[in-house]
Task: structure prediction
Amino acid sequence: MARRLDLHWTREAGRALEAVLLPRRCASCHGVLTWEEREWCGPCAFCLTRCPTDPRLRFDEPENWDHGWAWLRNGPDRLESRLVHSLKYGVRSEVGVRLGRAMAREWLPLGILPAHWTVVPIPLHRRKQRQRGFNQSEALARGWAEVTGMTIADVLIRPRSGRSLTRLNRHQRIRRTQGLYAPDPNLDPTWMDGVEGCLLLDDVVTTGSTLASARDALTSVWKGPIGFITLLDAIR
Ligand SMILES: [Zn+2]
Result:
């Protein structure tokens, strides 16, 4: 345990040092940021391509989802995928919180859901989260909750680890993601007090198999409406 803590602080100290010594770079185009630019630069903020379609349409039964929304899709320069890459593998989890806020600021005026929905971040396996230092969906959820006033409920866990799904086709993904998530057995049952709906939050939706698997796990403890939000719709 002590070693694990040491490791954690070494990594945190490394990140702090890196932030001081290296120029801050745009999470999207990797250009050097000016002092007034936060995680991504002005030109990138201007160029990011919004997702115009309903991401629920990729599911066999889109009507299972009471809400579905993706903020971005890839434009010609794939700045949006690079943003997600920085979110996952960058040195600052603050990128995720800021992206969560930015998404929510554009979603909120649509006025679709009341604030008493709760956000459920897609969990990482414990080992993966320890390696990465944070869960990108949780970081997004923090920013999202700040802007929308929604609560965050860590309802799900990912009991087993698994290899990346990036190179798999739809059927392989569906097979691989079945039973990937489970409700947290230690969850305080009061999490659903006053909650009218659950909004799963993930960084990317590709085939939808991850979200479908998370939804299956959620329905074993939650019988109300379920929706999802993602930063990027990466359908090809
Ligand atoms: Zn940029």
Notes: The radius of gyration is 18 Å. DSSP finds eight helices and seven strands in the chain.
